[in-house]
Design goal:
alpha/beta; globular; 12 helices; single chain; three-stranded mixed sheet
């Protein structure tokens, strides 16, 4: 662990940011959390993360909250200048995360996802150039390339041909990001992803890019537009009707618990500083289709989950994504996802 004692976490009230904040506090770092509950603006009051602020602050000393919009460059610079060389790590987990919302307001989407990331990088370069900079990117940088893979329906899911190199472990970092439809959200996150890489290459910032798929956990405020497994489990537990959107419900995602992602952050901080770009996710064991997730939830709750179907798929929606984490695991020995699909759903339902 570096000598500096501060972790700066953007989006600290969200699923990933809160998990990171708790983990860094356990490691003995003071945490400065930056979050202005923009999620409530994006998805409505039910998605508000404000209660998490009270939970983090109630945990005793070690967490300081900055109610700050990450687009506020002067405010961001002030925070970094205040802690300067005490900063050991920056986790940038704040984002506008929805394809659908991005299309409603492309300017705001780009400002939040891309321009604000540049402001954070510049603040880190000027005030904490030796701090690890961890950027939570997305598998949407690959656009809809995964939909060109040779998929077939097997039971209640789509899956890739067994002869394909991605079958055993999933999609690795060799998948191209060009000549594909990204969605506006995918474009803004790709711009940020590449800028983080460039600050590592041009200025020597020890920056790590983690291209994540579905992250979940008990703190997730899943909504129809974002956070499918959390939203599905909340609907199942409450008895609400779950809307199966597109692909007949056969689309597949792997899922990673936010606590496991936080342990990946810890693994990055524990090794010698260097740049890297990795796909990060739960792998095949945690993969589940919408139909499989509904069946598992029903089995655990001992009742059928009510559903309806919307045939049209979301713009840019992946039909199949399983993450190959071998590159990250090779560079960070000892880290691996700890939850399979059933364990995740049990935890989300409160039945674990």
């Amino acid at each position: 662990m570096p000598d500096q004692s501060v972790a700066i976490v953007t989006g600290s009230l969200g699923l990933v940011g809160a998990a990171a904040s708790r983990m860094f506090r356990k490691l003995g770092l003071d945490v400065v959390g930056i979050d202005n509950d923009f999620r409530a603006v994006l998805f409505g009051p039910d998605a508000s993360t404000r209660p998490m602020q009270k939970a983090l602050e109630a945990g005793g000393t070690g967490y300081r909250h900055e109610d700050l919009d990450i687009r506020d460059r002067d405010g961001i610079a002030r925070v970094f200048e205040t802690y300067a060389r005490r900063i050991a790590v920056v986790v940038h987990a704040a984002a506008q995360p929805s394809h659908d919302w991005a299309a409603l307001d492309p300017m705001t989407d780009f400002e939040v996802n891309a321009t604000a990331t540049l402001g954070l990088l510049e603040a880190a370069r000027r005030h904490a150039p030796e701090a690890r900079f961890i950027f939570l990117s997305t598998n949407k940088v690959y656009g809809d390339q995964p939909n060109d893979l040779p998929l077939e329906r097997l039971g209640a899911r789509l899956d890739i041909s067994r002869s394909h190199p991605f079958h055993a472990r999933g999609i690795d970092e060799t998948m191209p990001i060009d000549r594909t439809r990204h969605s506006l959200f995918g474009v803004s996150k790709t711009a940020a992803d590449l800028m983080v890489q460039e600050y590592g290459a041009r200025f020597g910032l020890p920056a790590t890019v983690l291209r994540a798929g579905c992250i979940t956990g008990e703190d997730h405020r899943g909504v129809p537009a974002h956070g499918f497994l959390s939203h599905l489990c909340r609907a199942a537990k409450s008895g609400r009707v779950y809307d199966v959107i597109g692909h007949g419900g056969y689309q597949v995602r792997d899922n990673l618990h936010a606590e496991d992602l936080a342990l990946a952050f810890a693994a990055i901080v524990s090794r010698a500083p260097q740049a890297g770009v990795y796909n990060i996710g739960g792998g095949r064991a945690s993969s589940v289709s919408v139909r499989e997730a509904l069946a598992l939830a029903g089995e655990i709750l001992h009742r059928t989950v009510a559903t309806k179907e919307t045939p049209a798929s979301r713009y840019g929606d992946h039909a199949w994504w399983i993450t190959d984490t071998r590159a990250f695991e090779a560079d960070h020995p000892g880290w691996a996802p700890r939850h399979d699909a059933r364990a995740l759903i049990e935890r989300l339902l409160g039945e674990a």
